[in-house]
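In the current project phase, we have settled on a layout for protein records. One protein thus recorded is set out beneath this paragraph:
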Amino acid sequence: MHPRDRILSAAARVYAETGFRGATTRRIAAEAGVNEVTLFRHFGSKSSLISEAIGAERGALVVGLLPEIPVEPEAELRAWAEGVHELLREKRALIRTCMGDFEEHPEMMPPCGSPTAQAAEALCEYVERLRRVGLATAGVDARAAASMLMGALFADAMGRDIMTDLYRATPERALTEYVRLFLRGLGVSVA
């Protein structure tokens, strides 16, 4: 692995564990197996390094596509929701840290083009396609509906290991229920 990539990977890991203040250049350099001078030569500053590391992590996330022509909404959305949930769970430490550091370092939060924002937009478009083919009959606002499902996926991914009393169902069962509730709200017939 190229030293720059090792540094970015190490910076993302250290930042996720310790936040901005705890992610010292010394610790990142040690984790990456380089000296601190190399960090500054490649990135110029700690802030630039961490911002780029977070961007690299975001860039590595790919959300599955929803079909152009909906046929089996429950199965299609279930598979999609599983992929989104898995990505959120995988990066939950980094997401939590970014959220915790937001007030002091707003530049660490993803821009509108983040994978989760793209997923929400794809979901809105899918709702419109469900309407066009006559599968969704309720006059519900697509953006509000997408926000609700994305919120449920996000809350489950971030909170499952913290609020165990709230998330008693297995992730598989919970995702199935979130999708079914979402579809029923749209007026889609669900088994």
